[in-house]
């Protein structure tokens, strides 16, 4: 799978840039269940609604290569 993966979660638009992700897994550590690494070792969504909005934002901010971006309902960029 190439390109971005995007979902609306808790009223936030969360996008994973698969070309930037290198599979450190910090997002998984910060929000167990929201993300997982696929067979290529790249982050994908698992069950992002299973974590609180705060945990989701913390997980997205934890990405050391800024592969995950978050925008609010008005389109303002929150992460990174």
Keywords for this structure?
80 residues; alpha+beta; Alpha-Beta Plaits; four-stranded antiparallel sheet; two-stranded antiparallel ribbon; 2 helices; 18% helix
Describe what this molecule looks like in 3D.
This protein has helices spanning 26-30, 53-61; strands at residues 4-9, 12-17, 35-37, 43-45, 68-71, 77-79. The protein is α+β, with helices and mostly antiparallel strands and 80 residues long. The radius of gyration is 11 Å and the shape is globular.
Q: What is the topological layout?
A:
Elements lengths: L3 E6 L2 E6 L8 H5 L4 E3 L5 E3 L7 H9 L6 E4 L5 E3 L1
Antiparallel strand pairs: 1-2, 2-5, 3-4, 5-6
Describe what is shown at a glance.
The protein has 80 residues and is of the alpha+beta class. It has two helices and six strands, in the order E-E-H-E-E-H-E-E.
End-to-end Cα distance, whole Å, is: 23 Å
Strand sequence of the main sheet, in spatial order? 1-2-5-6
Number of helices: 2
Number of strands: 6
CATH class: Alpha Beta
* Helix/strand/pairing category: alpha+beta
The shape, in one word, is: globular
- Evaluate the radius of gyration: 11 Å
What's the pLDDT, averaged over the residues? 95
- Helix and strand element order: EEHEEHEE
**Second rung of CATH, namely the architecture:** 2-Layer Sandwich
Range of helix content: 10-25%
Query: Which blocks of ≥5 consecutive residues have pLDDT under 50?
Result: none
How much strand content do the residues show?
Answer: 25-35%
Please describe the biggest sheet, giving its number of strands, its sense, and whether it closes into a barrel.
4 strands, antiparallel
């Amino acid at each position: 799978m190439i390109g971005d993966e995007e979902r609306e979660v808790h009223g936030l638009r969360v996008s994973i840039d698969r070309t930037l992700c290198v599979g450190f897994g910090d997002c998984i550590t910060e929000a167990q269940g929201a993300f997982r690494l696929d067979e290529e070792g790249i982050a994908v969504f698992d069950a992002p609604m299973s974590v609180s909005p705060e945990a989701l934002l913390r997980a997205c901010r934890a990405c050391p290569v800024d592969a995950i971006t978050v925008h609010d309902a008005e389109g303002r960029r929150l992460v990174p």
